[in-house]
Amino acid sequence: MSWGIIGTWRMALEGIVEAEKLLKDGQTSIDAIELAVKMVEDHPEYRSVGYGGLPNQDCEVELDAAFMDGDTLSIGAVGSIKDFKNPISIARKLMDEKYNIFLVGQGAEKYAHTMGFERVNMLTDYSKKEWEKKKSQVKLDKLKAYDGHDTVGVVGLDKNGKIVAATSTSGLFMKRPGRIGDSPLSGSGFYADSEIGAASATGVGEDIMKGCISYEIVRLMEEGLHPQDAAEKAVNKLNKKLISKRGKAKDISVVCMNNKGQWGVATNISKFSFVVATETEKPTVYIASFNEGKTTYVKATQEWIDTHTE
């Protein structure tokens, strides 16, 4: 059985390098993808996820995360959780629950504490300084408050055919307290079905959740479309609809993989990086771009990888 893993943004590279080892060894995609996401969450230089994530208007780091098992369609998700180290692991634990699988705010924090998860202040000195700088610029009308966002979304297929999807993010920089984007919402930020494939999205959640785009990509793959065709069709359709109805479409990027290990990517922005590893391809960073309804991508140079964290 083929195996593979694909993740959003260059920040997924280190985690995918380690997750690849587990998948090669025949271990479950759940363990592999949790490891990949945790490594992003733990890295303070990846400012849009986990420790060191960019804070909300009150200078608090609120985190969203989700996990989905394509074998059982089990889902676990948390939103607006503060002061816990690895929200992706809390989301994974919630997949075991029959009810109460999506918890937010104080409820999510109480659950995490009860389950013994590590409580950590996720605000770094750097993130606090960035918040202070952004706040002064916003007051002067020199910068939009919401500049700064990215989700790590990872899809993984193991040798037993289990495909999973996971997401983790600190959401929009300077967001209102309690704001939740698409990342922990099933069908929007992620979706997985081992009989078909899985997808994950990144960008501005307020637009992504208007199209349930991850579910749509999996649905298109079920109809027989190659993952690349499914991703492009879904992104282009939502992009055009948003422009038609609202005059503009905000950032939308997706990654996906089918149950054969074939993958696809699509975006509506000028530069979107992603990382792929399969049984025939070592972990590789690509840079995708959008032009006239078509997504193209090239391999990133080592120099680019060394100088970028997004």
UniProtKB/TrEMBL annotation:
Keywords: Autocatalytic cleavage, Hydrolase, Protease
Active-site feature positions: 151
Keyword Hydrolase: yes
Sequence positions that bind substrate: 179-182, 202-205
Transmembrane regions listed in the UniProt entry: none
The protein's name: N(4)-(Beta-N-acetylglucosaminyl)-L-asparaginase
MF terms (GO), sorted A to Z: hydrolase activity, acting on carbon-nitrogen (but not peptide) bonds, in linear amides; peptidase activity
GO biological process entries: proteolysis
Pfam family, any one: Asparaginase_2
InterPro entries: Ntn_hydrolases_N, Peptidase_T2
Ligase keyword on record: no
Record site: Cleavage: 150-151
CC per GO annotation: cytoplasm
